[in-house]
Amino acid sequence: MKKAKDILNPVNLTRMVMALAILLTLIAIFLVVTRPAPVNAGRTRGGDECTSVVVVASGDTLSKLLLEQGLTHNDVDAIAKTLKKDAGISTLRADSDKIEFTRPTDSEPVSKIVVIPSPWKQVELTCDGTGAWNCKTVDIERDTRAVYRAGEILDGDSFYLAGQRAGVPAGILADVYDLLAFEMDFERDVRAGQKFWVVYEENFSGGQKIDNGRVLAVSFDALRGNVKMYRYRKADGTTGYYDADGNGAIKSLKRTPINNAKVTSSFSNKRKHPVLGYTRAHKGVDFRASTGTPIPAAGAGRVVARGYNRGHGNYIKLRHNGSYETLYAHLSKFVKNVKVGTNVRQGQTIGYVGSTGMSTGPHLHYEIIKDGKHVNPMTVKLPAISNLNKSEKKKFAEYREIMDNAIEELKKNQNLFIQL
Ligand SMILES: [Zn+2]
Fold it and tell me: Rounded to an integer, what is the distance from CA 166 to the centroid of its chain?
């Protein structure tokens, strides 16, 4: 079975073409995507073999669970050592890890233990009869399908509500939000009647849906025009999101560091009044958010200032690659380990929203400074993190055409999917 990442590789474009051909010709065969059935739990029998499944609960430890199954203290020690050495597992996670215990017959001791730390990995321990336990890690094959969901913004709607109504899972919606936020302003670009669609992966195992994968393509009819993004794997193996023309869609900075926050004051560049001496300029954008809301770094960079002044209150300033700096003001508190000189990732929390300094209520005041000059975060053209060169753009265009054709088919019948 081919994995999505292989198929979407431009090297494997022909395979993608074939996948599309299969989609088109066997359309009648693909039926409604089956919804997951409840996971089997409890005891099952195959022949005389008897298997019981235990879902790790809070307070459970490996040794407690093993002793409950009648294993000896020697077994417990041997299993714990092997699991740590061969599979890197030393602790169990409550409510997510599962353990299967198998006995040759009801009355015999456990001879096989399967620890399931993720839907895509199983660690099998077998006893060889001399008391030694052997460990083998098995990757579970995933069957990945690309599905299409489309929706429309209604009166008084938010993109989030419209997405949920369209059947887009919350995690995928959050990813879509992060992607589109580079190109549009959810505060001002969203209106009733706008349409959108999302193509994303669903991972199946043994015919059951296990989880969702990545966003493969997204389209949104924003006020400023249609915004489209495609996930694409370059020849060097790196993946990124690109717009319809193959320009990098992920920008080095975010216009709105806090998703979904309402803009309460926009950027204005009015000069200082020469006579009265007061200024009406607002060198940044204000986002309403409650005190304590984490503030993510708008882009990767280094902390160049962290302190307090009368106007900004607690503030932090980052320097990014190229000629950009960003400043975040009125913080209620800083993050202990994020100090002057610290390197931060895009999205890493650098402080918390507050109302310190000259502020009338909790909000984030956000500035982007380009070459020492304040610019409007909502309109400044921001550099892309990854761009395609000429030959990659050509390959991307071919890939995009295949994807667009497949999406046209999915539009006609949303119960179809692309087998990746
Ligand atoms: Zn402000």
Answer: 19
